[in-house]
Structure formats: structure tokens, C-alpha cells
Specification:
This protein is α/β, with parallel strands linked by helices. The chain folds into three domains: 88 residues, Translation factors (Elongation Factor Tu (Ef-tu), domain 3); 117 residues, Nucleotide-binding domain of ferredoxin-NADP reductase (FNR) module (Rossmann fold); 53 residues, no CATH class. Helices cover 29% and strands 31% of the residues. The strands form four sheets. It has a seven-stranded mixed beta sheet, with helices on both faces. It has a five-stranded antiparallel beta sheet with strand order 5-6-2-1-7. Strands 4-3-8 form a three-stranded antiparallel beta sheet. Helix 5 runs parallel beside helix 6. It is globular and about 50 Å long. The C terminus is likely disordered. It binds flavin-adenine dinucleotide and FE2/S2 (inorganic) cluster (FES). The site of flavin-adenine dinucleotide has 24 residues, from strand 4, strand 6, helix 2 and helix 9. Flavin-adenine dinucleotide (FAD) binds next to strand 4, strand 6, helix 2 and helix 9.
């Protein structure tokens, strides 16, 4: 059981939770995640470790409500407990001194990019971060990302904040101005794919943090299978970060849709269980 120590809302459907997990807090590195269950009967879901406080023995999780489990998780209040949590899982981010690095975050991908940008900056890189969202109320972790970046560029699809448009516009400008030694991206699949297509002509190595469905997190169940450079990889043990120019995005998109019917049913059950009896 892991106690929720603090909670705040970063956006209407995105909560930031501080969770007691002393061993994980001590061991975790940028790029790693936990797999947790909210209840005994609940499914196991992967969530990135956005930060940690080893002294307090807590980790930071930033969670976007998309389906039943993430809704249940965001409904927890300080003093309540998660059923269990395992981690840190996955390979830590490979960090080198590349010079100028562009970190691209879309939506809740900001929680993935934050520890990576911090580690890149600590290694002596000049980190240019691009943070994008559909609209300004969905922009999260702006101050935190600004603190670990030489410059923070903001874009919104509807122009309500920052530059009107997609994250690829400032990325293109930075690539043209060059030299850029490395790019890392986390966010929705189409965004990560677009980032890879933008960097490909420049030959700039680009790492993406993939988010396939995960079950056991041990490389045994095959749930998180992805194809990278024609080879089968398991994102939970080989990733979640891979060379974006080698990722088969079409396959990953198809696999993410496999459980859509079951997810809809699960969401329906959640709504039914929350309905008040009619008298
Ligand atoms: C390594 C890793 C790290 C992650 N880190 C975070 C994080 O820090 N914060 C966060 O909010 N989410 C993160 N996710 C995504 C999170 O695990 C899913 O949103 C969650 O499992 C959905 O469960 P659910 O029951 O709430 O929704 P479901 O009912 O299972 O799904 C609802 C909707 O979300 C989509 N979905 C389901 N699983 C995923 C997934 N893995 N990635 C993207 N979309 C998905 C479905 O296609 C569906 O449209 C991460 C995923 C991985 C693989
Ligand atoms: S989650 Fe089972 S193999 Fe990766």
C-alpha cells in the first residue's frame, strides 16, 4: 500500500500526486516509470516518475484522466492509499553531452520530459524545450520545465497561449538555425511521429518515449510489443525510449486501439457504479 501524501490539479483533468514509495524515490532515474494498481481488482497501469524526493521518500506522478483507472487514481485524496506500485521500471534515459538538445513535450508528455530535461541540463547540455497543448488550460508544468531549460517555447493548437500552431513550428526553426545535437520527444503518437519526420531530413538523432499498453512490466506478457528497426522490442524492459526514426508508428497506433471496446465497457461500468439509485 502506498499513501498519497499530497495532490494538486495542474489542469482540469490532470492531477499531480505525491506518493510514498521510499525505495523507488531513492533508485529512480530520468525516463523510468512505475506500474501501479489503485484497487485489488483494478488493472495495472504504467505512469512515469516525474520527480522524487528521496529524503521524504516520495515520488511525483502526473496523471491525465482518460479512462477508468486514471479516473480512479485522480479521485484519491491525501491520506488514501494505492493498492500497490512497482518500480522504477524501464531503461533510464541515455544522457550524453550533445551540446544543444531540443526536448519536445505534448500534453501530459510534459511529465515525461521534465526529468529528462533536468538530467540533460545537469549533464551540461543547452536544453531548448518546446511545450505544446491543445489550449492554454491544458498546458502543464510550465514553470518546472522553464527552470530546467535555457529557453522554453510554448505552442497551443488554438492560439490561446504562446505561438499558434504545433510544436513542430519552433522545432523546424531551431533545426534550421542549428546545430542541434539531439532531440527527445514525449506526447501523443501523432506528435512524436511528426517530430521524427521533422528531424529526419536533418539527420538529428531523435528519441521518443513510447506509451503502448502495458500489463506485467517484466517483458513476459508481450502487451507492450513494438517494432523498432524491424526488430521486436518490449517497451517495458527495452524502453520506453527508442530511436524515433526506426519506430513502426503504424503498428503501435493499431495496437493501442486493440482494447478500445473493453475500455469503453470499463468506462461505462465506472459511470454506472457512480450513479445514485433512483427512488
Ligand atoms: C511507460 C509509460 C508511461 C506513462 N506515463 C504516463 C504519465 O506519466 N501520465 C499519464 O497520465 N499517463 C501515462 N501513461 C499512459 C497511461 O498508462 C494510460 O493513460 C492509462 O493506462 C490508461 O488507463 P485507463 O484505464 O485510465 O484508460 P483506458 O480505458 O485503458 O484507456 C482510455 C483511453 O486512453 C488510451 N490509452 C490507453 N492506454 C494508453 C497508453 N498506454 N498510452 C496512451 N493512451 C492510452 C486508450 O486508447 C483509450 O483511448 C504512460 C504509459 C506508458 C506506457
Ligand atoms: S508489459 Fe508485458 S511485456 Fe511489457
Amino acid at each position: 500500500m502506498n499513501r498519497i501524501v499530497a495532490k494538486r490539479w495542474l489542469a482540469p483533468s490532470v492531477a499531480c500526486l505525491e506518493v510514498e514509495a521510499p525505495l523507488t524515490a531513492r533508485k529512480r532515474q530520468a525516463g523510468q516509470f512505475v506500474i501501479l494498481r489503485v484497487t485489488e481488482e483494478g488493472e495495472r497501469i504504467p505512469i512515469t516518475i516525474a520527480g522524487s524526493n528521496p529524503e521524504a521518500g516520495t515520488i511525483t506522478l502526473v496523471v491525465q484522466q482518460v479512462g477508468k483507472t486514471t479516473h480512479d487514481l485522480c479521485a484519491l485524496e491525501p491520506g488514501q492509499y494505492l493498492k500497490d506500485l512497482v518500480g522504477p521500471l524501464g531503461q533510464p534515459t541515455h544522457i550524453e553531452r550533445w551540446g544543444t538538445v531540443v526536448a519536445v513535450a505534448g500534453g501530459v508528455g510534459a511529465a515525461v520530459i521534465l526529468p529528462i530535461a533536468a538530467a540533460l541540463q545537469a549533464a551540461g547540455n543547452q536544453v531548448q524545450t518546446i511545450l505544446g497543448a491543445r489550449s492554454q488550460d491544458l498546458l502543464i508544468l510550465e514553470d518546472e520545465l522553464g527552470a530546467v531549460s535555457e529557453k522554453l517555447w510554448i505552442t497551443t493548437d488554438d492560439g490561446s497561449r504562446g505561438e499558434h500552431g504545433l510544436v513542430t513550428a519552433p522545432l523546424e526553426r531551431l533545426l534550421k538555425a542549428g546545430p542541434v545535437g539531439h532531440v527527445v520527444a514525449a506526447g501523443p503518437l501523432p506528435m512524436m511521429r511528426a517530430v521524427c519526420e521533422a528531424t529526419r531530413p536533418y539527420g538529428v538523432p531523435t528519441v521518443v518515449s513510447l506509451n503502448p499498453v502495458m500489463v506485467d512490466g517484466t517483458g513476459m506478457c508481450g502487451g507492450c510489443r513494438v517494432t523498432v528497426g524491424g526488430e521486436v522490442k518490449y517497451a517495458c524492459v527495452d524502453g520506453p525510449e527508442f530511436d524515433g526514426h526506426q519506430v513502426d508508428f503504424d503498428e503501435l497506433r493499431a495496437r493501442l486501439a486493440i482494447y478500445r471496446d473493453k475500455e469503453e465497457i470499463s468506462r461505462g461500468r465506472r459511470c454506472q457504479s457512480q450513479m445514485q439509485p433512483v427512488r
